[in-house]
């Protein structure tokens, strides 16, 4: 199966859910359920979103790792989904960046400074 075909199939929540459950990793499934709850999603939607996020945001190293995983996997679809979901879980676990400047009181700039201190 070509990677493009696989990525297209992984856009289906039903397909992603079957693969996710078929992996048989209860720890991974529990982590996905917890993360999905945080975003008001079900596990299948979280998995589909994880694939989209990986496709849009993964760096070259992450793509190389997934290509190596796919090359060695007996079930490329499950291996791809697992890799992308684990990547998304790791991204979600990263702390949010701390702003160096507090948001301006009564301002809609969010502390970005483009308000020119209008209050």
Mind explaining what this structure looks like?
With 119 residues, the chain is mostly helical. The chain has one domain. The protein is built from six helices and no strands. Helix 3 packs across helix 4, helix 3 packs across helix 6 and helix 4 crosses helix 6. The longest helix is centred in the C-terminal third of the chain and has 18 residues. It is elongated, with a radius of gyration of 18 Å.
Describe this protein with a few key phrases:
6 helices; mainly alpha; 65% helix; 119 residues
* Main structural class: mainly alpha
Shape: elongated
H and E order: HHHHHH
**End-to-end distance, in Å?**
57 Å
What's the count of strands?
0
The percent range for strand residues is under 5%
Instruction: Estimate nothing, just give the exact number of structural domains.
Output: 1
Low-confidence stretches: none
Largest sheet, in brief, is: none
**Average predicted local confidence, pLDDT:** 87
What is the number of helices?
6
Summarize the structure.
The chain is mainly α and 119 residues long.
Write the layout of secondary structure elements.
Layout: H1 3-9, H2 13-23, H3 26-38, H4 43-57, H5 60-72, H6 76-93
Helix pairs in contact: 2-4, 2-6, 3-4, 3-6, 4-6, 5-6
């Amino acid at each position: 199966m070509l990677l493009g075909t696989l990525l297209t199939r992984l856009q289906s929540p039903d397909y992603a859910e079957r693969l996710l459950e078929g992996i048989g990793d209860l720890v991974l499934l529990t982590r996905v359920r917890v993360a999905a709850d945080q975003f008001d999603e079900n596990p299948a939607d979280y998995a589909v979103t994880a694939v989209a996020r990986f496709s849009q945001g993964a760096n070259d190293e992450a793509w190389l790792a997934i290509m190596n995983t796919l090359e060695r996997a007996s079930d490329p679809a499950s291996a791809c989904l697992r890799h992308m979901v684990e990547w998304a879980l790791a991204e979600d676990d990263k702390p949010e960046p701390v702003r160096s400047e507090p948001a301006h009181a009564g301002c809609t700039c969010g502390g970005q400074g483009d308000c020119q201190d209008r209050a």
